[in-house]
Design brief:
This protein is an alpha/beta fold and 444 residues long. The chain has 19 helices and 12 strands. The strands form 5 sheets. It has a 3-stranded parallel sheet with strand order 1-2-3. Strands 4-5-8 form a 3-stranded antiparallel sheet. β9, α7 and β10 form a beta-alpha-beta unit. α1 crosses α10, α9 crosses α11 and α17 crosses α19. The radius of gyration is 31 Å and the shape is elongated. It binds glutamic acid.
Length: 444
């Protein structure tokens, strides 16, 4: 049986690191085993879903390299959900209830005050046809609840091991609201059955849902798929990220200049026993992925780690791969230039400043004009890879300056900056003529 997984985001917001991690782990698990990945837009809530968010989800996944093999919109499948609902009604598993939110709230408070668990008391099951008709005549519309069996539902979770949920301690879930809206629970199961999903991989906040959904799979006479519930993301401080996720959208990270492979390597490896290193590709990441490497403790999302992986990704980027991107920012100064500057990049856009050092114009920083003049007098005729060490050797012999006092004024004069790529490699790219002008303090 080949693996088939799905990612089912709601187009009611932007993708953030939390839901992208879910998408990614699904993708890695499937692709690592030659399986397929379904993108299923969970847009049953027509009022809150937008085409712009849907497009954003596709753009973000495509940018990250998470391609999908099949794609669906739940809003186009209402007939399937109706049909399943009718079957559940016919078998007595889906029943109408007429309580208002206030009535339910009042009952919960009474239960709590008596020390009872605040679960739905199933009063609706005792309604006579006449009582139901009276409610309808009053203008009340029913919502529909799934009648749980009230048992220990268990499964072997790929991430958590043996897992159990006692559905006797849960309220019968509402599957259809009074306005006719299908909540996520039933459409998700219907689609997982129709699309032959083999594994449902999602955050551990869904564990309780899984108990109810397994009962729905069974009530619809379908085989129950495998499940994996991943530990949730926490920030560098160990606190849950859920409240801060809104500010960690993928589109913002793209704007901030993060490389997709840095994001996928980070999100794919935190919370696993694999070292936090950048992968060669998202495919390679999939080949090394295994749930057995995932621990039970939360996955720590730390921007400092992401930054490190981002730099690593750039340091490993070949000239061939970098070339179109260099051209796009007008910084394609050849392979040697790329090789000289890439070890210094944190973000790709840093290359623009570095290209300016070579192409100019930059404003030299000269704190000691006499020192610069002496250095100018000692500048070799040919600036090749050996020139820098010969030149600095001569300047040292002449002025007695050494270490930082020797190198920093020369770097500041030649580049206008205190930090940057290796000067020995940079000098031939800048060229003798420009070096001379900069040592004279001219903008060049
Ligand atoms: N749209 C649901 C969510 O984002 C999907 C959950 C699931 O994967 O089953 O929470």
């Amino acid at each position: 049986m080949s693996v088939k997984v799905r990612f089912a985001p709601s187009p009611t917001g932007k993708l953030h690191v939390g839901n992208v991690r879910t998408a990614l782990v699904n993708w890695l698990f499937a692709k690592g085993q030659g399986g397929s990945f379904v993108l299923r837009i969970d847009d049953t809530d027509l009022a809150r879903s937008t085409a712009a968010f849907e497009q954003g989800i596709e753009d973000d996944l495509a940018w990250l390299g998470l391609t999908w093999d099949e794609r669906y919109n739940q809003s186009k499948r209402f007939d399937r959900y109706e049909e399943a609902a009718e079957r559940l009604k016919a078998s007595g598993r889906l029943y109408p209830a007429y309580e208002t939110a206030e009535e339910l709230d009042r009952r919960r408070k009474v239960q709590l005050s008596r020390g009872l668990p605040p679960i739905y008391d199933r009063a609706a099951l005792d309604l006579t046809d006449a009582q139901k008709a009276a409610y309808e005549a009053e203008g009340r519309r029913p919502h529909w609840r799934f009648k749980l069996e009230g048992k220990r539902v268990s499964w072997e979770d790929l991430a958590r091991g043996h897992a159990e949920v006692d559905t006797a301690s849960m309220s019968d879930p509402v599957l259809i609201r009074e306005d006719g809206l299908f909540l996520y629970t039933l459409p998700s199961v219907v689609d997982d059955i129709d699309m032959a999903i083999t594994h449902i991989i999602r955050g551990e906040d869904h564990v309780t849902n899984t108990g109810a959904q397994i009962e729905i799979f069974e009530a619809l006479g379908a085989p129950v798929p495998g499940f994996a519930h991943m530990p949730l993301l926490v920030g560098a401080d160990g606190a849950a990220l859920s409240k801060r996720l809104g500010s960690l959208s993928i589109s913002e990270m793209r704007d901030q200049g993060y490389e997709p492979i840095a994001i996928t390597s980070h999100l794919g490896r935190i919370g696993t026993s694999d070292p936090l290193e950048v992968a060669a590709s998202v495919q390679a990441l999939g080949e090394s992925f295994a749930f057995s490497k995932m621990g039970r403790s939360p996955a720590r999302y730390d921007t400092a780690d992401l930054d490190r992986l981002n730099a690593q990704a750039l340091h490993a980027l070949s000239y061939e791969a970098a070339r179109p991107r260099l051209a796009a920012v007008n910084a394609d100064l050849g392979e040697t230039f790329w090789d000289v500057v890439r070890p210094n990049l944190n973000k790709f856009a840093d290359v623009v400043e570095m290209a300016k050092i070579v192409k100019g114009p930059i404003t030299p920083v000269i704190e000691d004009a006499a020192f610069a003049e002496t250095a100018l007098g000692l500048l070799p005729d040919t600036i090749d890879e050996t020139a820098w060490s010969a030149w600095t050797g001569a300047v040292k012999a002449e002025t007695g300056a050494k270490g930082k006092a020797l190198f920093m004024p020369l770097r500041l004069a030649l580049t206008g900056q205190a930090h940057g790529p290796d000067m020995a490699a940079l000098a031939p790219l800048i060229g003798r003529e420009t070096i001379v002008r900069r040592l004279r303090g001219e903008t060049a």
